[in-house]
Amino acid sequence: MRVRAAILRDPGKPFTVEDVSLSDPGPGEALVRVVGVGMCHTDVLFRMFPELPMPMIFGHEGSGVVEAVGPGVTRVAPGDHVVMSFDSCGWCRQCQAGAPSYCDEFLMRNASGLRTDGTSGATDPTGAPVAARWFGQSAFATHAVATERNLVRVDPSLPLELLGPLGCGLQTGAGSVLNVLNVRPASSIAVFGAGAVGLAAVMAAKVAGAGEIVAVDLHPGRRELALELGATRAVDGADPELAAAVGQVDCSFDTTGVPSVVTTAVGVVRPLGTCGLVGAGGGEITLQPESFAGRSIRYIFEGDAVPQQFIPELIRLWQQGRFPFDRLIRTYSLDEINEAERDSANGTTIKPVLLPGP
Q1: What is this structure's pTM?
Q2: Which of 66, 86, 219, 317 could join 80 via S-S bond, C-beta 3.0 to 4.6 A?
């Protein structure tokens, strides 16, 4: 079918909104009309990788309505409202153990932009292939073909256009705190980076009952918002004595990937504590052996979450007023995708959400 999509034809160039022909859903796939799709840092980071197949449709925080299903699909049906999350095989050791974000095929299924059989999933008007399986969905478009394992059914009464970011960034931040760091009542945590992932971690730490939640960021507005969302203290990330300003904590969480910040995040953790890392693209990190003394360091994918279980839990917390992720969101039309990317990069907008519909 013919759809409109934001296509990246060159890593260093802007997105262009074009018509493409999307393939019909195959076995284990569903066609989803995209209602909203978040722009994640991963989309911005990987768009600069020249080894990815271009042209490509990015976008991996989609939400929408199922319009058709392929052979063998039983978990969703046309008319279902869904959030699209990451893809996984379902049968490797990690998937069978309830850890799909560490699937043996995670990178191939999510970061290649192609189906597992190497097909692209879409073509442009000249018939040239367009990679349309980014994180099993490629949701910067009016429609996406997703895998059945990507999809999480949600109540049709919910504001579907806002739910897409739960599929990756917000799931990553909240899941890292609740599933990995296991923040306990009255414990302390420092969150480095108060973007969407970091603020999701702040809100989750408040849900967990943490006694001290320290938010670290360069932007005064984000530090102020972190305090409104549950942080007990906010620290300027440019402080030359950053470790001292943060103080010792039971666990820490870095979303920046900046080597110097990661070193600080590890250093402020008390012995027997854990430092969680999710930031990428910052370069090599050097730690002295004594940095590990009594401490655990975990690089976390997707908050160690099973989306079909965790996303409904985040929605319940939002309905209770305990996870107000909607405060992070600013919406844009699909044609405004380059403006959304600029606003995200300069800190004007914490979580851009594109609305591809008319």
Answers
A1: 0.95
A2: 66
| Whether pLDDT at 298 is above 90 | yes
Q: Where are the beta strands (DSSP E) in the chain?
A: 2-8, 16-22, 29-38, 56-57, 62-69, 81-84, 121-123, 129-131, 143-147, 151-154, 188-192, 212-217, 233-236, 249-254, 269-277, 296-299, 329-333, 351-355
Domain 2-167+324-355 architecture: Alpha-Beta Complex (3.90)
CA distances in angstroms from 323 to 41, 208, 269, listed in the order given: 21, 11, 26
Task: Give the pLDDT band (50/70/90) at residue 281.
Answer: low
Distance, CA of 68 to CA of 61 (rounded, Å) = 20
Closest CA to 137 of 208, 43, 229, 214: 43
Type of residue found at 15 = F
Query: Is the predicted pLDDT of residue 43 greater than 90, yes or no?
Result: no
